[in-house]
Amino acid sequence: MSEYIIKNGHVFDPVQGLKGDKADISVKDGKIVDKAGSGAKVIDAKGKTVMAGALEVHAHVAGPKVNAGRWYRPEDKHFDSHKKPGITRIEGGKSIPTVFKTGYEYARMGFTFAMEAAMPPLYARHVHEEIHDTPIIDEAALPVFGNNWFVFEYLKNKEIENAAAYISWVMRQTKGYGIKVVNPGGTEAWAWGLNCLTINDPVPYFDITPAEIMNGLMAANEYLGLPHSMHVHQNSLGNPGNYEVTLDTLKLAEGVKPKNNFGREQVMHSTHLQFHSYGGDNWGNFESKAKEVMDYVNKQDNITIDTGNVTLDETTTMTADGPFEHHLHGLNHLKWINVDVELETAAGVVPYIYDPNIKVCAIQWCIGLELALYAKDPMRCFITTDHPNAGPFTRYPRVYSWLMSKKVRDERLNTFKNADKVISATNLAELDREITLYELAAMTRAGPAKALGLSKDYGGLKPGMNADIAIYDINPDKFPSSGPEIEKAFGNAAYLFKDGKICVQDGKIVDFGNKHTFWVDAKVKENKLVVRDIREKFLRYYSVNEANYPVPESYAPHQHIITVDATQA
Amino acid sequence: MNTVTMNVNKIPELYFECENVNPDTFAGKKAAEIAALKGYQGKKISTLGEYFTITGDAGATAADTKIVINGDCTKMKYIGAKMSAGEVVVNSSTDMYTGSWMTGGKLLIKGNVHSFCGLAMKGGEFTVEGNAGNYLGAAYRGDWRGMSGGVLRVKGNAGSDVATFMIGGELIVEGDVDIHIGTHMEGGKIIVKGNANRRVGGQMVKGEIYVFGNINVMMPGYKYKDEVDLEVDGTKAKFIEYIGDLGERHPKKKGEMVYGKLYMKK
Ligand SMILES: [Zn+2]
Ligand SMILES: [Zn+2]
Fold first, then answer.
1. Which residue range is the domain that position B37 belongs to?
2. For residue A310, is it within any domain?
3. Most exposed among A113, A294, A403, A539, judged by the fewest C-beta atoms under 10 Å?
4. What pLDDT digit, counting tens, does each position of B63-100 carry?
5. Burial letters B14-27, b for 16+ CB under 10 A, else e
6. Taking CB atoms and an 8 Å limit, are B43 and A83 in contact across chains?
7. Residue A289 has what DSSP assignment?
8. Does residue A398 form part of some domain?
């Protein structure tokens, strides 16, 4: 394999505390090494920014609901479908791009990993088919557990060990990475036309509350010692005044200790917090509570969050939060897909236009930015758009420009149609902070890698780590002052190394790399009760046979398996 | 006004996408530059010059540019699509997306147009002397934003799914239309001077549909309201007014429910 030496770049790496220092990075056999051989190819990074490959912690990029979005929104592709010169295929779609475009665009922005945020276990095969077809980037998927009948029944009786045994079984069947929770209890309640809008609303027919579900899943997660923590999309998403529910949920983590061998310090990852930081009690007095939420997050070390930044685009919302999508359809009357996934979960899809002329959308835009700007520890606050829910992931460069330049952000803020009202309902106008390149490296590389339990090999540039490296045409001494310049630099990596191979050069895809699917194999003690329960539920309720449930090896031919031993737990 | 004349010199094997054939793209260009403009045939990219012999230079702006096209255009898509000003005259028939997304100017097709023409039209005048296919003046597949402005007139017949999701403007079919007309309509005016087949105004929220001939089968969601004297596209007559579609949501204006209106000439 080729050797490289990346010379004279400004290196930003929180793992080593490098804050734009000029340093050379050597690459050999897919790893970062102290010193490359004399024949190593020299990459001149003078006047450029060097970071580890970025990790996407939460996006909806593969699987049945993403594809439902694609087939029912041909209009998303019509004006955004092209063949670029070179080795790439046709790239189509804006908010729900094809798998090819997904891989290319992440790579062009300097990403080397993406987490598919919600995998319905029953349809895991479809998720893996799409992951397999997404070029370049490594991926993993989080199976959803927050509305699962087995989980409800075990946790209602506080049977953490049985819940953990079931979870480990599902992760093995689905090649899943960790524990995702979406509107705990609420999605199951939706099957009865109801919802759980606080953490104490009982789930109909199951005699359990969202708080009990989340407490139990956190306990099971730490019992297993998984690389990632429980990853939660909270109750009451998108409703004015929901920040109190958000604080109630975050408080569940108090006193819970992380237990794992991966260096992970959080026990709860609270995702797309923008959708959960709302004040007011109707759309008229809707306002930001980002400060209140972040004040709590900042002092609570065992929580990580991601932002869910609104990008002010036309997009496609999709979530396992079935009742929320019905609610949204009632607001905008646009086409709605609703799916029930048997004993496990549900999903909905509705297009949405975040119109900058609408006050609520502009306030949502402010809230997402405020969350990142209030974050005291960039290692615990990650930037996402909850793609495609708050906007397409391809807008990351624009989000960075708003976070890194007060001028660029204020230009947008002050030109909203309802700028006065938006400013008075938010705190953004008062915030002077500009996220630095070093902080950005924490929020997009080192931080997510640590939260996902991947910090040994990913998210940094220390010798021994995987050679996933992004080089941007940004001179930190002359940081670009206009939004379009910042966007262009972050959207078109000068180089992207993936596993030590150059996959992007001057913003062009030059190699498809060696894509891997990450999943976690958690071994537990033999548990006959759980095995019997699984058999019984498949016989009684499932539409498929137990033998047809697992994801066969052929669906994920390039696996990176992380093994966890919980047999002694 | 300058005139650019385009004579078809080669029939594409598949279909040629004329996204660049409109006064906006031509404006300010010489004939040779126009001939060098790109277009797709399937996944292969080629030039306008490969399919057309082009004479005459364009005007400085779209408004100063007239395009006249001669020869068989039945395998040419997107002619006049997205045009905002100026004039296009095609002396034959054209394929899909003709005049779609146009926002202004005048487009005249002397033959027929295929399906999906005048999609999401916003402004201007689009006239077809022959017949139109399906989805005339509708929203693009999957989209919910149909024709919103301008005048689209077909002198012959039109196919099915005319004006789906229409929200504004005026669409006149002087002949007959097939099933599904004004489905999901939320504004604008449709005039059918011939007969309409079935499912006229299904799930219509707002807007007006006038039918001079017969409706083969009436939708069940329409209710008789009144008889009114109207002048519609130059014809004075008595019309029977129906409101609907009662199966669809309807907005309120000043406390009154707003319905779609269906007028049938007596
Ligand atoms: Zn979510
Ligand atoms: Zn999400």
1. 1-71+81-87
2. yes
3. A539
4. 999 999 999 999 999 999 999 999 999 999 999 999 99
5. ebbbbbbbbbbbbb
6. yes
7. -
8. no
Instruction: Give the chain A residue whose CA is nearest to the CA of B248.
Output: A333
**Which residues in chain B are contacts of A90 at CB distance < 8 A?**
43
Give the integer Cα–Cα distance in Å for A65 and A78.
20
Q: Which residues of A touch B43 (CB under 8 A)?
A: 83, 90
Residue of B144, B165, B186, B249 for testing the chain A interface, max A β-carbons within 10 Å: B144
CB of A85 within 8 Å of a chain B CB? The answer is: no
- The predicted model gives A428-441 an average pLDDT of 98
Q: What SS3 class is residue A338?
A: strand
The reply to whether residue B143 touches residue A83, judged by beta carbons under 8 angstroms, is: no
Question: How much is the average pLDDT of B2-8?
Answer: 98
| Contact across the interface for A75 and B43, Cβ inside 8 Å | no
Q: Any chain B CB within 8 A of the CB of A78?
A: yes
* pLDDT score for A1: 63
A424 and A523 part of one domain: no
- B124 and B38 in a single domain? The answer is no
Of the residues A71, A76, A78, the best mutation for testing chain B's interface (the one with the most B CB atoms within 10 Å of its CB) is: A78
Residue A7 has pLDDT above 90, yes or no: yes
Q: Is there a single domain that holds both residue B28 and residue B128? A: no
- In the predicted structure, residue A187 carries a pLDDT above the cut 70: yes
Residue in chain B nearest A73 by alpha carbon: B142
Our CA-based measurement puts residue A315 at a distance from the nearest CA of chain B, in whole angstroms, of 13
Tokens of B102: 């146009």
Residues A185 and A314 in one domain: yes
Please check whether residues A438 and A305 belong to one and the same domain: yes
**Does A555 share its domain with A411?**
no
Say if residues A111 and A490 touch (Cβ distance below 8 Å). no
Q: What gap in Å lies between CA B231 and CA B236, rounded to an integer? A: 4
Total structural domains within chain A = 2
Q: Which domain holds residue A350?
A: 143-386+404-451
> A96 to chain B, minimum CA–CA distance in Å?
14
Same domain, A316 and A439: yes
Q: What is the ipTM of this complex?
A: 0.87
- B55 in a structural domain: yes
- Residues B59, B116, single domain; the answer is no
**Which residue carries 């012999």 as its tokens?**
B53
Same domain, yes or no: A295 and A376? yes
| Co-location of B49 and B157 in the same domain | no
As a whole number, the mean pLDDT across chain A is 97
Q: Any idea which residue has 């041909």 for tokens?
A: A74
Q: Do B144 and A74 touch (CB under 8 A)?
A: no
pLDDT of residue B158: 98
Summary count for chain A: helices (H), strands (E): 19, 26
Give the global pTM. Answer: 0.95
User: Is A363 in the same domain as A238?
Assistant: yes
Average pLDDT over residues A201-219: 97
* End-to-end Cα distance, chain A: 41
Average pLDDT for residues A96-115, to the nearest whole number?
Answer: 98
Look up residue A483 and give its amino acid.
Answer: G
Domain count, chain B: 2
Distance from CA of A393 to the nearest CA of B (A): 22
pLDDT in tens, B136-150: 999 999 999 999 999
Assess if residue A306 is contained within a domain.
Answer: yes
The residue type found at A224 is L
Q: Which residue in A75, A83, A90 is closest to B143 by CB distance? A: A75
* Claim to verify: residue A435 and residue A549 sit in the same structural domain: no
Using an 8 Å CB-CB cutoff, list chain B residues near A74.
140-142
A160 CB neighbour count, 10 Å cutoff? 21
Q: Which residue of A has its CA nearest to B44?
A: A83
Ligand 1: centre distance to CA A304 (Å): 15
Residue A356 within any structural domain of the chain = yes
For residue A508, what pLDDT is reported?
A: 98
